[in-house]
Amino acid sequence: AQRVTQPEKLLSVFKGAPVELKCNYSYSGSPELFWYVQYSRQRLQLLLRHISRESIKGFTADLNKGETSFHLKKPFAQEEDSAMYYCALSTSGTYKYIFGTGTRLKVLA
Amino acid sequence: EAGVAQSPRYKIIEKRQSVAFWCNPISGHATLYWYQQILGQGPKLLIQFQNNGVVDDSQLPKDRFSAERLKGVDSTLKIQPAKLEDSAVYLCASSFLRQGRGERELFFGEGSRLTVL
């Protein structure tokens, strides 16, 4: 069965500290992994996708197929990074999207 | 470009009543998804449409939930009769079709918050 696991419900860090939001997945096929973000009073939106291998707002994520992980990282957290972050897995063929339970990131001043 | 539109934004009903939610996806987006997000949980896929055909409705409680996408554009999600555990935010998302194994971004609406008393 396909599954996305985000072990931390809440992550609090100080401004300027490094951030790592964990995501592990379970899928027997070839996965596409995404990070979605929801800022306060805004709709859920795409942050980045593994296939693009890009850095968005200073965030990066590397797909590790051996560890079935797709952790989100940022070297220096900013207060505006405070939001709810969801890891998502898209299955090949049907393009079904499965979301994790989310991690709330709080960046403290 | 207009985003995904949903209505109503909020709805409060009593258990056993019925409710309907409407979604208008981004123009040209062939794929439409309905998700249920219960407080403290991630979005859970209820149903996925490709144009006006159902791709996946394996997690839709079909005894009380129904959804349709007439003409492959707008979609409605109905709950009848509602239960207390249906209290959640119902999210609609759409994406456009790319050929082959490509990138597909989901565009979400603001959601419809349902409270069942």
Number of helices of chain A: 0
Give the class of chain A from helix and strand content and strand pairing. Answer: mainly beta
Mean pLDDT of chain B: 92
Provide the gyration radius of chain A in Å: 13 Å
SSE run of chain B: EEEEEEEEEEE
Structural class of chain B: mainly beta
Largest sheet of chain A: 6 strands, mixed
Strand content of chain A: 35-45%
> Averaging pLDDT over every residue of chain A, what do you get?
93
Helix/strand order of chain A, N-terminal first:
EEEEEEEEEEE
Summarize the structure.
By secondary structure, chain A is an all-beta fold.
How is this structure best described in words?
The complex is a heterodimer of chains A (109) and B (117). With 109 residues, chain A is an all-beta fold. Chain A has strands at residues 3-5, 10-14, 19-21, 24-26, 32-38, 45-49, 60-61, 72-74, 83-90, 97-99, 103-108. In chain A, a hairpin with a 6-residue loop joins strand 9 (83-90) and strand 10. Chain B has 117 residues and is mainly β. Chain B is 0% helix and 47% strand. In chain B, the strands form two sheets. In chain B, strands 2, 4, 5, 6, 9, 10 and 11 form a seven-stranded mixed beta sheet that branches. Chain B is globular, with a radius of gyration of 14 Å. The interface between A and B is medium-sized, with 26 and 25 residues.
Task: Summarize the SSE layout with pairings.
The complex is a heterodimer of chains A (109) and B (117).
Chain A: E1 3-5, E2 10-14, E3 19-21, E4 24-26, E5 32-38, E6 45-49, E7 60-61, E8 72-74, E9 83-90, E10 97-99, E11 103-108
Parallel strand pairs in A: 2-11
Antiparallel strand pairs in A: 1-4, 3-8, 5-6, 5-9, 7-8, 9-10, 9-11
Chain B: E1 5-7, E2 10-13, E3 19-24, E4 31-37, E5 44-50, E6 53-56, E7 65-68, E8 75-79, E9 88-95, E10 107-108, E11 112-116
Parallel strand pairs in B: 2-11
Antiparallel strand pairs in B: 1-3, 3-8, 4-5, 4-9, 5-6, 7-8, 9-10, 9-11
